[in-house]
Please model this.
Amino acid sequence: MSSAQDPRWAVVTASSQGLGLACAEALALAGVAVCLNGRDRGRLKAAAERLAALAPGVPVEWVAGDLAAPATREQLCEAVPAPDILVLNVGGPAPRPVAEMTAKDWHEAFDALYVPPAELLQRYLPGMRRRGWGRVVAITSSAVRAPLPGLAASTVGRLGLSGLLRCLTAEAAVDGVTLNAILPGRIMTPRQEAAIAREAARAGISEAEQLARFEAAIPAGRLGRAGEVGALCAFLCSAEAGYITGQHVVIDGGALPTLF
Ligand SMILES: NC(=O)c1ccc[n+]([C@@H]2O[C@H](COP(=O)([O-])OP(=O)(O)OC[C@H]3O[C@@H](n4cnc5c(N)ncnc54)[C@H](OP(=O)(O)O)[C@@H]3O)[C@@H](O)[C@H]2O)c1
Model:
Protein backbone atom coordinates (compact mmCIF):
# COMPACT_ATOMS: atom_id res chain seq x y z
CA MET A 1 0.00 0.00 0.00
CA SER A 2 1.62 3.28 -1.05
CA SER A 3 1.00 6.08 1.42
CA ALA A 4 1.53 9.81 1.56
CA GLN A 5 2.34 9.77 5.26
CA ASP A 6 3.91 7.11 7.42
CA PRO A 7 2.13 5.31 8.94
CA ARG A 8 -1.49 5.85 8.04
CA TRP A 9 -3.90 5.27 10.92
CA ALA A 10 -7.07 3.15 10.82
CA VAL A 11 -9.91 2.89 13.30
CA VAL A 12 -11.53 -0.54 13.00
CA THR A 13 -14.62 -0.97 15.17
CA ALA A 14 -15.85 -4.30 16.63
CA SER A 15 -12.51 -5.88 15.81
CA SER A 16 -11.31 -8.23 18.57
CA GLN A 17 -12.21 -11.31 16.49
CA GLY A 18 -13.89 -12.39 13.25
CA LEU A 19 -14.24 -10.06 10.29
CA GLY A 20 -13.23 -6.89 12.13
CA LEU A 21 -9.98 -8.47 13.32
CA ALA A 22 -9.30 -9.88 9.85
CA CYS A 23 -9.62 -6.35 8.40
CA ALA A 24 -7.31 -5.00 11.11
CA GLU A 25 -4.75 -7.74 10.38
CA ALA A 26 -4.75 -7.08 6.64
CA LEU A 27 -4.33 -3.34 7.22
CA ALA A 28 -1.53 -3.86 9.75
CA LEU A 29 0.26 -6.17 7.30
CA ALA A 30 0.02 -3.31 4.79
CA GLY A 31 1.80 -1.07 7.31
CA VAL A 32 -1.26 0.76 8.61
CA ALA A 33 -1.36 1.58 12.34
CA VAL A 34 -4.61 0.27 13.81
CA CYS A 35 -6.94 1.08 16.69
CA LEU A 36 -9.05 -1.94 17.71
CA ASN A 37 -12.34 -2.00 19.61
CA GLY A 38 -14.55 -4.55 21.36
CA ARG A 39 -16.39 -5.03 24.65
CA ASP A 40 -14.41 -7.91 26.15
CA ARG A 41 -11.14 -6.41 27.43
CA GLY A 42 -9.27 -9.75 27.55
CA ARG A 43 -10.19 -10.66 23.98
CA LEU A 44 -9.23 -7.17 22.81
CA LYS A 45 -5.85 -7.29 24.51
CA ALA A 46 -5.16 -10.73 22.97
CA ALA A 47 -6.12 -9.36 19.54
CA ALA A 48 -3.79 -6.38 19.97
CA GLU A 49 -0.94 -8.73 20.93
CA ARG A 50 -1.68 -10.93 17.92
CA LEU A 51 -1.54 -7.87 15.66
CA ALA A 52 1.72 -6.68 17.17
CA ALA A 53 3.28 -10.12 16.55
CA LEU A 54 1.93 -10.24 12.99
CA ALA A 55 3.16 -6.77 12.01
CA PRO A 56 6.13 -5.89 14.25
CA GLY A 57 6.75 -2.17 14.55
CA VAL A 58 3.27 -1.16 13.39
CA PRO A 59 1.54 0.84 16.16
CA VAL A 60 -1.57 -0.78 17.67
CA GLU A 61 -4.03 0.84 20.08
CA TRP A 62 -7.32 -0.39 21.47
CA VAL A 63 -10.44 1.08 23.05
CA ALA A 64 -12.55 -1.29 25.13
CA GLY A 65 -16.28 -0.58 25.23
CA ASP A 66 -19.71 -1.10 23.71
CA LEU A 67 -19.98 0.80 20.42
CA ALA A 68 -23.64 1.47 21.17
CA ALA A 69 -22.51 3.65 24.10
CA PRO A 70 -21.71 7.26 23.11
CA ALA A 71 -18.81 7.25 25.62
CA THR A 72 -17.05 4.47 23.66
CA ARG A 73 -17.31 6.44 20.44
CA GLU A 74 -15.95 9.50 22.24
CA GLN A 75 -12.99 7.45 23.50
CA LEU A 76 -12.27 6.23 19.98
CA CYS A 77 -12.23 9.82 18.70
CA GLU A 78 -9.88 10.80 21.53
CA ALA A 79 -7.56 7.81 20.93
CA VAL A 80 -7.29 8.48 17.18
CA PRO A 81 -8.46 12.03 16.40
CA ALA A 82 -7.42 12.03 12.72
CA PRO A 83 -7.54 8.55 11.13
CA ASP A 84 -6.96 8.08 7.41
CA ILE A 85 -9.07 4.92 7.33
CA LEU A 86 -12.34 4.06 9.06
CA VAL A 87 -13.60 0.47 9.00
CA LEU A 88 -17.13 0.40 10.35
CA ASN A 89 -17.93 -3.05 11.69
CA VAL A 90 -20.58 -3.87 14.31
CA GLY A 91 -21.76 -6.94 16.23
CA GLY A 92 -24.62 -8.69 14.41
CA PRO A 93 -28.11 -9.01 15.90
CA ALA A 94 -29.55 -12.36 17.01
CA PRO A 95 -32.02 -13.81 14.49
CA ARG A 96 -35.66 -13.06 15.36
CA PRO A 97 -38.90 -13.39 13.34
CA VAL A 98 -40.52 -10.06 12.41
CA ALA A 99 -43.68 -11.14 14.23
CA GLU A 100 -41.76 -11.11 17.51
CA MET A 101 -40.10 -7.70 17.05
CA THR A 102 -41.30 -5.00 19.45
CA ALA A 103 -40.79 -1.25 19.04
CA LYS A 104 -37.96 -1.54 21.58
CA ASP A 105 -36.29 -4.27 19.48
CA TRP A 106 -36.39 -2.07 16.36
CA HIS A 107 -34.86 0.84 18.28
CA GLU A 108 -32.15 -1.42 19.71
CA ALA A 109 -31.31 -2.75 16.25
CA PHE A 110 -31.03 0.80 14.90
CA ASP A 111 -28.93 1.88 17.91
CA ALA A 112 -26.54 -1.05 17.36
CA LEU A 113 -26.32 -1.20 13.56
CA TYR A 114 -26.87 2.34 12.32
CA VAL A 115 -26.17 4.97 14.98
CA PRO A 116 -22.56 4.00 15.91
CA PRO A 117 -21.22 3.86 12.34
CA ALA A 118 -23.22 6.93 11.33
CA GLU A 119 -21.92 9.00 14.22
CA LEU A 120 -18.29 7.95 13.74
CA LEU A 121 -18.59 8.73 10.03
CA GLN A 122 -19.95 12.20 10.85
CA ARG A 123 -17.14 12.78 13.33
CA TYR A 124 -14.28 11.61 11.12
CA LEU A 125 -15.30 12.48 7.55
CA PRO A 126 -14.74 16.28 7.74
CA GLY A 127 -11.11 15.77 8.84
CA MET A 128 -10.44 13.23 6.07
CA ARG A 129 -11.89 15.66 3.53
CA ARG A 130 -9.82 18.56 4.89
CA ARG A 131 -6.65 16.47 4.68
CA GLY A 132 -7.54 15.40 1.13
CA TRP A 133 -7.40 11.62 1.60
CA GLY A 134 -9.56 9.02 3.31
CA ARG A 135 -11.05 5.56 3.06
CA VAL A 136 -14.29 4.45 4.70
CA VAL A 137 -15.38 0.81 4.49
CA ALA A 138 -18.51 -0.48 6.21
CA ILE A 139 -18.70 -4.23 6.84
CA THR A 140 -22.41 -5.03 6.57
CA SER A 141 -24.07 -8.13 5.09
CA SER A 142 -25.26 -9.68 1.85
CA ALA A 143 -28.66 -9.61 3.63
CA VAL A 144 -28.80 -5.96 2.54
CA ARG A 145 -29.13 -7.15 -1.05
CA ALA A 146 -30.97 -10.44 -0.44
CA PRO A 147 -32.80 -10.48 2.92
CA LEU A 148 -32.62 -13.71 4.94
CA PRO A 149 -35.34 -15.29 7.09
CA GLY A 150 -35.12 -14.12 10.70
CA LEU A 151 -32.66 -11.34 9.91
CA ALA A 152 -35.03 -8.45 9.17
CA ALA A 153 -33.46 -6.32 11.90
CA SER A 154 -30.05 -6.79 10.29
CA THR A 155 -31.31 -5.84 6.83
CA VAL A 156 -33.30 -2.81 7.98
CA GLY A 157 -30.60 -1.36 10.25
CA ARG A 158 -27.83 -1.84 7.71
CA LEU A 159 -29.85 -0.42 4.80
CA GLY A 160 -29.88 2.91 6.62
CA LEU A 161 -26.09 2.88 6.63
CA SER A 162 -26.02 1.98 2.93
CA GLY A 163 -28.15 5.04 2.28
CA LEU A 164 -25.92 7.30 4.36
CA LEU A 165 -22.74 6.13 2.61
CA ARG A 166 -24.30 6.81 -0.77
CA CYS A 167 -25.60 10.23 0.34
CA LEU A 168 -22.04 11.30 1.19
CA THR A 169 -20.19 9.64 -1.70
CA ALA A 170 -20.22 12.50 -4.21
CA GLU A 171 -19.22 15.29 -1.85
CA ALA A 172 -16.42 13.17 -0.31
CA ALA A 173 -15.02 12.04 -3.68
CA VAL A 174 -14.13 15.62 -4.56
CA ASP A 175 -11.72 15.59 -1.60
CA GLY A 176 -10.13 12.19 -2.27
CA VAL A 177 -12.25 10.26 0.23
CA THR A 178 -13.95 7.02 -0.84
CA LEU A 179 -16.87 5.30 0.92
CA ASN A 180 -17.71 1.67 0.21
CA ALA A 181 -19.44 -1.27 1.85
CA ILE A 182 -18.42 -4.93 1.95
CA LEU A 183 -21.38 -7.33 1.97
CA PRO A 184 -20.22 -10.73 3.25
CA GLY A 185 -22.12 -13.95 2.72
CA ARG A 186 -21.26 -16.89 5.01
CA ILE A 187 -17.73 -16.42 6.32
CA MET A 188 -16.21 -18.71 8.97
CA THR A 189 -15.87 -16.68 12.19
CA PRO A 190 -16.84 -17.30 15.82
CA ARG A 191 -20.28 -15.86 15.04
CA GLN A 192 -20.67 -18.23 12.08
CA GLU A 193 -19.53 -21.19 14.22
CA ALA A 194 -22.29 -20.28 16.68
CA ALA A 195 -24.81 -20.13 13.81
CA ILE A 196 -23.75 -23.61 12.66
CA ALA A 197 -24.16 -24.98 16.21
CA ARG A 198 -27.57 -23.27 16.57
CA GLU A 199 -28.92 -24.54 13.24
CA ALA A 200 -27.53 -28.05 13.87
CA ALA A 201 -29.32 -28.21 17.23
CA ARG A 202 -32.55 -26.97 15.63
CA ALA A 203 -32.36 -29.56 12.84
CA GLY A 204 -31.21 -32.37 15.16
CA ILE A 205 -28.08 -33.07 13.10
CA SER A 206 -24.36 -32.84 13.76
CA GLU A 207 -22.45 -29.59 13.25
CA ALA A 208 -20.47 -31.27 10.45
CA GLU A 209 -23.74 -32.11 8.67
CA GLN A 210 -25.00 -28.57 9.16
CA LEU A 211 -21.78 -27.14 7.75
CA ALA A 212 -22.15 -29.43 4.73
CA ARG A 213 -25.70 -28.08 4.22
CA PHE A 214 -24.43 -24.51 4.27
CA GLU A 215 -21.59 -25.38 1.89
CA ALA A 216 -23.97 -27.08 -0.53
CA ALA A 217 -25.89 -23.78 -0.90
CA ILE A 218 -22.75 -21.89 -1.95
CA PRO A 219 -21.51 -22.28 -5.55
CA ALA A 220 -17.87 -22.08 -4.35
CA GLY A 221 -18.64 -25.17 -2.22
CA ARG A 222 -17.25 -23.71 0.98
CA LEU A 223 -17.62 -20.90 3.47
CA GLY A 224 -15.47 -17.82 3.05
CA ARG A 225 -12.35 -17.20 5.09
CA ALA A 226 -12.16 -14.10 7.27
CA GLY A 227 -8.79 -13.32 5.68
CA GLU A 228 -10.49 -13.03 2.30
CA VAL A 229 -12.73 -10.28 3.67
CA GLY A 230 -9.68 -8.65 5.29
CA ALA A 231 -7.80 -8.66 1.98
CA LEU A 232 -10.75 -7.05 0.19
CA CYS A 233 -10.99 -4.42 2.91
CA ALA A 234 -7.26 -3.63 2.69
CA PHE A 235 -7.56 -3.23 -1.07
CA LEU A 236 -10.53 -0.86 -0.78
CA CYS A 237 -8.45 1.12 1.74
CA SER A 238 -5.37 1.29 -0.49
CA ALA A 239 -4.22 4.21 -2.62
CA GLU A 240 -4.81 2.00 -5.68
CA ALA A 241 -8.57 1.80 -4.95
CA GLY A 242 -9.04 5.57 -5.13
CA TYR A 243 -11.43 5.37 -8.12
CA ILE A 244 -13.81 2.91 -6.40
CA THR A 245 -16.44 4.67 -4.33
CA GLY A 246 -20.13 4.40 -3.48
CA GLN A 247 -20.01 0.63 -4.06
CA HIS A 248 -21.45 -2.36 -2.24
CA VAL A 249 -19.09 -5.27 -2.84
CA VAL A 250 -20.52 -8.74 -2.23
CA ILE A 251 -18.10 -11.49 -1.10
CA ASP A 252 -20.09 -14.71 -0.87
CA GLY A 253 -18.66 -17.46 -3.09
CA GLY A 254 -21.36 -16.78 -5.67
CA ALA A 255 -24.27 -17.46 -3.30
CA LEU A 256 -26.45 -14.47 -4.23
CA PRO A 257 -28.43 -15.14 -7.40
CA THR A 258 -28.81 -11.41 -8.13
CA LEU A 259 -27.37 -9.83 -11.29
CA PHE A 260 -25.90 -6.77 -9.50
N1 LIG B 1 -19.45 -14.09 9.54
C1 LIG B 1 -20.39 -14.03 8.63
O1 LIG B 1 -20.67 -15.01 7.92
C2 LIG B 1 -21.16 -12.74 8.39
C3 LIG B 1 -21.98 -12.63 7.27
C4 LIG B 1 -22.68 -11.46 7.04
C5 LIG B 1 -22.58 -10.43 7.93
N2 LIG B 1 -21.79 -10.56 9.04
C6 LIG B 1 -21.73 -9.43 9.96
O2 LIG B 1 -20.41 -8.95 10.10
C7 LIG B 1 -20.20 -8.49 11.43
C8 LIG B 1 -19.03 -9.23 12.05
O3 LIG B 1 -19.34 -10.61 12.04
P1 LIG B 1 -18.36 -11.70 12.67
O4 LIG B 1 -18.81 -12.98 12.07
O5 LIG B 1 -16.96 -11.28 12.54
O6 LIG B 1 -18.83 -11.64 14.21
P2 LIG B 1 -18.10 -12.17 15.54
O7 LIG B 1 -17.25 -13.34 15.24
O8 LIG B 1 -19.20 -12.32 16.54
O9 LIG B 1 -17.17 -10.93 15.99
C9 LIG B 1 -17.80 -9.73 16.35
C10 LIG B 1 -16.77 -8.76 16.88
O10 LIG B 1 -17.43 -7.54 17.21
C11 LIG B 1 -17.25 -7.23 18.60
N3 LIG B 1 -18.51 -6.61 19.06
C12 LIG B 1 -19.74 -7.18 19.06
N4 LIG B 1 -20.65 -6.33 19.55
C13 LIG B 1 -19.98 -5.20 19.87
C14 LIG B 1 -20.36 -3.96 20.44
N5 LIG B 1 -21.63 -3.71 20.78
N6 LIG B 1 -19.42 -3.02 20.66
C15 LIG B 1 -18.12 -3.25 20.33
N7 LIG B 1 -17.70 -4.40 19.78
C16 LIG B 1 -18.62 -5.38 19.56
C17 LIG B 1 -16.95 -8.56 19.25
O11 LIG B 1 -16.22 -8.43 20.47
P3 LIG B 1 -16.99 -8.36 21.89
O12 LIG B 1 -18.05 -9.42 21.86
O13 LIG B 1 -15.92 -8.58 22.90
O14 LIG B 1 -17.58 -6.97 21.94
C18 LIG B 1 -16.10 -9.21 18.17
O15 LIG B 1 -14.78 -8.70 18.20
C19 LIG B 1 -21.52 -8.72 12.18
O16 LIG B 1 -22.29 -7.54 12.11
C20 LIG B 1 -22.18 -9.81 11.36
O17 LIG B 1 -23.59 -9.82 11.49
C21 LIG B 1 -21.07 -11.69 9.29
Observations:
- The CA atoms of residues 45 and 128 lie 28 Å apart.
- The longest helix spans residues 152-173.
- The mean pLDDT is 96.
